[in-house]
Amino acid sequence: MDEDKAELEVKIDAPFLIRALDFETGLKHIMAPAFLGVTLGGIWEAFVMPHVGEIQLPNPIHGAFFISILLSPLLYRLLLDDEPSRWKEYTLGLSSLGFLFCMIWLSGWGAMFCGGYGALLVWVWICTDWGRYQLPPFRYGLWHALGINLGAFAGGVLTFTQL
Question: By the number of CB atoms within 10 A of the CB, which of 58, 80, 125, 155 ranks highest?
Answer without folding.
Answer: 155
